[in-house]
Amino acid sequence: MSDPVAMHMSDGLLDAPTSLLFVAVAVVGVGVALAKARGDLDDRTAPLAGLVAAFVFATQMLNFPVLPGVSGHLLGGALAAILVGPWVGALCVTIVLVVQSLFFADGGVTALGANITNMALIGTAVGYLTAVALRKLATRNKGGLAAVAFVSALVNTVLASFGFVLEYAIGGQGGVAFGTVAAAVLGVHVLIGIGEGVITAVTVTAVASARPDLVYLLRGVPQKLELKA
């Protein structure tokens, strides 16, 4: 196994049955997201979804240092879910992962199902559910929204990495002991999640300061938020 802490799994890290299993999981999950997203795509969400996908793609290409020899980058699940909703957000991250895998060799083609399951499905769902659970805090003011975005992104990153650990436990063939992989992946992604949280908080509050009506999480907020800088 060349890089035991990378979220984008490479070819050969999982055996064939496990790879096929998570291809099936990804197909079903993306299919459900595609069907549900039709109700969320409107004149506000559709253009923003394109911008979110482009932003996630660009920021995933930029790595920030975590530990010596270890770097992290934005996963984007919580960010996308907070801005455009969980269904459209899952599709945005899926598109990014497919393009990265097919055209930039970032994540193996045979591991694409597992990567989509972890980052586009688990990450987006967990990030959104965390944000919804903390929504009252997010609607108070700019600081509350930033805190909710930070926590959602942190949880999204750690739980997405747990998906990686689970898949390795089922069919990993990297030649590294499961306990070693679990400790390395989960431990490092707690630190990566802090970086993801900062990027997500800054991005979400910047959008909310200019156009709070574009933030999916804030839809239906009865009172006027004090989000202007």
List the helices and strands and how they pair.
Blueprint: H1 16-37, H2 45-60, E1 64-67, E2 70-72, H3 77-84, H4 86-104, H5 112-133, H6 135-138, H7 142-171, H8 178-210
Antiparallel strand pairs: 1-2
Helix pairs in contact: 1-4, 1-5, 2-3, 2-4, 3-4, 3-5, 3-7, 3-8, 4-5, 5-7, 7-8
Subcellular location: Cell membrane
Transmembrane segments: 12-34, 46-67, 79-104, 116-134, 146-170, 176-209
InterPro entries: CbiM/NikMN
Brief sketch in words of this structure:
By secondary structure, this protein is mainly alpha-helical.
Question: How would you sum up this structure, described in words?
Answer:
By secondary structure, the protein is mostly helical. It has one domain (16-218): Orthogonal Bundle (Arp2/3 complex 21 kDa subunit ARPC3), CATH 1.10.1760.20. The chain is 67% helix and 3% strand. Strands 1-2 form a two-stranded antiparallel sheet. Strand 1 (64-67) and strand 2 form a beta hairpin. Helix 1 (16-37) packs across helix 5 (112-133) and helix 5 (112-133) runs antiparallel to helix 7 (142-171). It is globular, with a radius of gyration of 17 Å. The model has no long low-confidence stretch (mean pLDDT 87).
Residues in helices, as a percent range:
55-70%
Gap from first CA to last CA: 47 Å
Number of strands: 2
Q: SS-based structural class?
A: mainly alpha
**Uncertain parts:** none
Under CATH at level 1, the class stands as Mainly Alpha
Task: Work out the count of structural domains.
Answer: 1
Overall average pLDDT: 87
State the order of secondary-structure elements, H for helix, E for strand. HHEEHHHHHH
* CATH topology term: Arp2/3 complex 21 kDa subunit ARPC3
Order of strands, widest sheet: 1-2
| Main β sheet profile | 2 strands, antiparallel
Number of helices: 8
Q: What is the beta-strand fraction?
A: under 5%
What is the C-alpha radius of gyration, as a whole number of Å?
Answer: 17 Å
The CATH architecture classification is: Orthogonal Bundle
GO biological process, one term: transition metal ion transport
Protein name: Cobalt/nickel transport system permease protein
Keywords: Cell membrane, Membrane, Transmembrane, Transmembrane helix, Transport
Membrane topology: Multi-pass membrane protein
